[in-house]
Amino acid sequence: MDKDLKIIASINQRIGLKNNQTPIAKKAWYAVGFFFLLIILTFQKWSPIAGNWALMAFSFFFMIVAFSVAIVFRSRGKKLQKLISTQNLIASWTLDNAQKNNYVDYLFKNELGKNQVILFSISFIAIIVFGLFILFIPEGKLAMLGVLAGLIIFLALFAFGMPYYYKYKNKQGDGIVLIGKKYAYINGFFHNWDFPLSGIKSIKIIHKPFYGIRLTYYYTDRTFRHSETLYIPANQDIHLHELIQQFKD
Fold first, then answer.
1. What does the pLDDT average to over 64-72?
2. What does the alpha-carbon distance between residue 6 and residue 19 come to, in Å, rounded to a whole number?
């Protein structure tokens, strides 16, 4: 009886789950329409922005960017919908507050640590490059020093600010985990590896920093092959060996 109630509750949660990729696609389409309208207005004699070619070029660039975002997130929305509708779903569960907090804290510490390494590496290179200019080119030393300081401050704000932003977003997550052979929805974030020359590199059960799955997938783009690792927390009653076997079948 309890098992049946859990199954029903899980189904109801999936039905109530909103596709968070769709609103992004809609907003991007609105942006496409807005920038397209600006382009049209630059060619109308009665328009207050008529002949403003700089604005036209600006609008055209951002229209292309918005169009690309709309196409990408429209595709992602369709894929996520297949998980929500159980069409491509292998397993699903919901994290409790303690599980979600452990997951969020781990992601925060991991992201903060990686960003610090990147920050120090880029700052070290920037100091050497700008230092050589400052040392051998007398003119504009203060300007170059100001640019260097501004660059490091900007990188530091990004490196330390983004982990806190994602921690906030993860704290607001729904705690729902949906797993498919080529997709994963984890606490509000959607991942997919169904592109050409893409797939799963490795998948294994982990017990630290929490019980769950470590899934590494790879994808290929213009800058060659890349990989990303997902740490997916799971409930203790989830049979992860059976789940992993479905990826291998």
1. 89
2. 22
- Token pair 């039905």 is at which residue? 15
Q: What is the pTM of this model?
A: 0.68
With vertex at residue 97, the alpha carbon angle to CA 158 and CA 114, rounded to the nearest 5 degrees, is: 25
Tell me the C-alpha distance between 153 and 142, whole Å: 16
Among 210, 186, 204, smallest CA distance to 105 is for 210
Model confidence band, residue 2 (pLDDT cutoffs 50, 70, 90): very low
Mean pLDDT of the chain: 82
Domains in the chain: boundaries: 2-84, 91-95+175-248, 102-171
Enumerate long-range contacts of 16-21, CB under 8 Å, 24 or more apart.
17/84, 17/174, 17/176, 17/178, 19/77, 19/80, 19/81, 19/84, 20/80, 20/188, 20/190, 21/73, 21/74, 21/76, 21/77, 21/80, 21/190
